[in-house]
Amino acid sequence: MVLSTDFYALVAQIIPVLLLTGIIEMRAVSQRWAEPTLPTWVVLGFLVGMLLIILGEVSALWVVSNGAENALVLFGALFGIGVAGSFAALPLVDTVLDWAAPAEKRASWLQRLGTAAALTPFAAAMVALIAASAA
């Protein structure tokens, strides 16, 4: 696999965006870490999600720079971009629900939203993977 110089230029451009997103997300999660009710698997899940975001974004950049038709790379790109958008939206949704609902209701909504946010890009990526394989 030979990567073009465009790929490295694109990765260099997106690193500040990834760092800024990571700082915002870690700040939002650190507020939750102070609560003793936050399970460890939630924190680990968040960190795994951040890794998926980075892998997906790099895959997307590779697709853009090299015009790859590899279905697995397309899958990783779509999934990573979807997860990135989902994680970026969660602090905003949490803030809105904090204004609008009691804590128990907010937690229930966030669990449902988190499940949907994780499954929706996965489903979209699977459809794209099947379509790319069939083509």
Automatic annotation (TrEMBL):
<keyword id="KW-0472">Membrane</keyword>
<feature type="transmembrane region" description="Helical">
    <location>
        <begin position="71"/>
        <end position="93"/>
    </location>
</feature>
<feature type="transmembrane region" description="Helical">
    <location>
        <begin position="41"/>
        <end position="64"/>
    </location>
</feature>
<feature type="transmembrane region" description="Helical">
    <location>
        <begin position="7"/>
        <end position="29"/>
    </location>
</feature>
<protein>
    <submittedName>
        <fullName>Uncharacterized protein</fullName>
    </submittedName>
</protein>
<feature type="transmembrane region" description="Helical">
    <location>
        <begin position="113"/>
        <end position="132"/>
    </location>
</feature>
<keyword id="KW-0812">Transmembrane</keyword>
<keyword id="KW-1133">Transmembrane helix</keyword>
